[in-house]
Amino acid sequence: MSVEVETQGGVTLVTLRRPGVRNAVDAATAHALHAAFVAFEQDDSAHVAVFQGAGGHFCAGWDLQSGARLLADGVTPEALADTLDFTADTVHPPGPMGPSRLQLSKPVIAAIEGAAVAGGMELALWCDLRVMAEDAYMGVFCRRFGVPLIDGGTVRLPRLVGLSHALDLILTGRKVEADEALRMGLCNRVAPAGQALEAALALAHQLAAFPQATLRADRASALAAEGLPLQQALLQEWAGGRECLAEALRGASRFAAGQGRHGEF
Fold first, then answer.
1. 110: Cβ–Cβ under 8 A, 6 or more apart, which residues?
2. Over residues 155-164, mean pLDDT
3. Which residues fall within 8 angstroms of residue 50, CB to CB, at 6 or more apart?
4. Model pLDDT, residue 89
């Protein structure tokens, strides 16, 4: 199987396993990844997902060998576009790389070893948080072959690192190693080589232990506030937060009873 799913309490681990092609994604794998994350979203016992690639690499992007086979089989660009169109499915829209057009209500953490490039970088950008091994790297490597960013790269990258950094990476396709990625905000944590998964799982279990309704409401507000006028964003924040006041009162009672004093988690 190219996609494996494992549960660890409230944490779901999704593993992309095509090591022979550095976990490049073909159509069948994209479908399997999409299905795995839709299932995560629908599982009430799952709070946080960790997304990793097997065999020392996160993902090398779209499987160009499969693209070459499409051309050899006479598939036209128009026919290919029709297979990638997602406008008919507004509930769980699929992306060419699988889950890249899903808008989940729960966080996903990328555990990045080795390459997260081209469409693989777009999958990493789709995640809420990115933990990179110190020898891992990202880059719009598809620039060399004329493959466009159609899994959210041109949308999410500027939002994460700003337009100037984003255009530098998008236009040049250059390699970005972990230390630079951390400086520009492209990743959130850097772990020792070979330990990205361990660090990502620890972070995921930390998030899964928090009261979930409030965590999800705050996450949703932060994601939806992009580009909104301040007053509208504040109203939206309040609409989500007011639904969590019962949870807040329970938390206040735990604090009054002695839990979480002095900033302890």
1. 50, 51, 52, 58, 116, 123, 124, 127, 129, 130, 131, 200
2. 97
3. 11, 12, 13, 14, 108, 109, 110, 111, 197, 200, 201, 204
4. 67
CA angle 175, 67, 125 (to 5 degrees): 40
Output the CA angle 232-216-188, nearest 5 degrees: 95
Judge contact between 24 and 64, C-beta under 8 A. yes
Decide if pLDDT at 115 tops 80.
Answer: yes
Alpha-carbon span 185 to 179, nearest angstrom: 10
- Give the Cα separation of 86 and 93 in Å (integer): 6
Instruction: Please spell the DSSP secondary structure of 160-212, one letter per residue.
Output: HH-HHHHHHHHHH---EEHHHHHHHTS-SEEE-TT-HHHHHHHHHHHHHTS-H
* pLDDT tens figures, 55-68: 999 999 999 888 88
Give the type of residue at 237: E
Instruction: Report the distance separating Cα 135 and Cα 113, nearest Å.
Output: 7
User: Average pLDDT of 99-116?
Assistant: 97
Residues 21, 67 contacting (CB under 8 angstroms): no
- CA-to-CA distance for 117 and 136, rounded, in angstroms? 10
Relative orientation angle of helices 153-161 and 163-172, to the nearest 10 degrees: 140
Using pLDDT thresholds of 50, 70 and 90, give the confidence band for residue 161: very high
CA torsion angle 143 100 124 52 (round to 10): -120
Tell me whether strands 11-16 and 3-8 are parallel, antiparallel or unpaired.
antiparallel
Tokens representing 114?
Answer: 């080795």
